[in-house]
């Protein structure tokens, strides 16, 4: 593979329960000393072994580093051998120790990744691709100083890296929906941050309902945030986007998305209007887009250019992400293991 998309085998060095519904797994590999794309919110593709196998079966990387050729070999594996592929955020990277931490949400309707994470022990092995600009480029807060974050528990690993990277001059309001109050976490940051933990009430309530209610009712300090970051299931992210756009008067973002089996999640990036919109601005070249789609990457549409208060009729969900091309049957339970994407919007 190319330097930005190596195939690694990573082994469990330690695992511990962070909260009742999240487990942190520390992985080690000699190749983890250096990773591309420094910064917060670095995403990777993890490959989980099929039931009964100790390690995932993955093709060898071609000598010429051709990503498409490698992916074709991966999808050509027999279905009973082909590892499940899921997207996750690196919660921490320790180059000196050649280690990374990945936090796994332990979903009620457990799919293969949740089942693996719940039982993972020292020496267990996964495959890893990335971080890579082919499927997810880290997007820090930049120069913004007034920030809004809203996510469910699947966004917590990325949220943690983003809050930890904020400068002391930043101020942020955070709304995070969790399964119950015991799932709240301590997140270190130099910024002035207020986190609202939102347990689902009653237990088992509709996913995203508490998050929507809290954000809609919030009295945000100092008026509108300069940027907002959203992460969750697609229906929730769309509803939050509509609220920020129509009720709060924030600028309309431009969207890209990924499909997650029975659930859909959306990702957005946006910058303020400066010039008139140019169709196709910021899109990948055809070859690069093909490589990104092969690895489940998003179909980037570049930064949005809608002005404050304007409407944007694009639908989220226009680009598949995190899917395997080879035919296979998937349950809704398996779909819940897919990491939810991140979303930045700015006025």
How does this model look, in words?
- The protein is an alpha+beta fold.
- The protein has 7 helices and 13 strands.
- The strands form 3 sheets. It has a 6-stranded antiparallel barrel with strand order 1-2-5-4-3-6. Strands 9-8-7-10-13 form a 5-stranded mixed sheet, with helices on both faces.
- α3 links the parallel β7 and β8.
- α4 runs parallel beside α5.
- The C terminus is likely disordered.
CATH superfamily of the largest domain: Nucleotide-binding domain of ferredoxin-NADP reductase (FNR) module
Please give the CATH class of the largest domain: Alpha Beta
Identify low-pLDDT runs: 254-285, 298-347
CATH architecture descriptor of the largest domain: 3-Layer(aba) Sandwich
The residue fraction in helices comes out at 10-25%
The biggest beta sheet, please? 6 strands, antiparallel, barrel
Number of domain units: 2
Characteristics of this structure?
single chain, 347 residues, alpha+beta, Elongation Factor Tu (Ef-tu), domain 3, Rossmann fold, 2 domains, six-stranded antiparallel barrel, five-stranded mixed β-sheet, 7 helices, 18% helix, disordered C terminus
Short overview:
The protein has 347 residues and is of the alpha+beta class. It has 7 helices and 13 strands. It has 2 domains: 7-129, Translation factors (Elongation Factor Tu (Ef-tu), domain 3, Beta Barrel); 146-346, Rossmann fold, CATH 3.40.50.
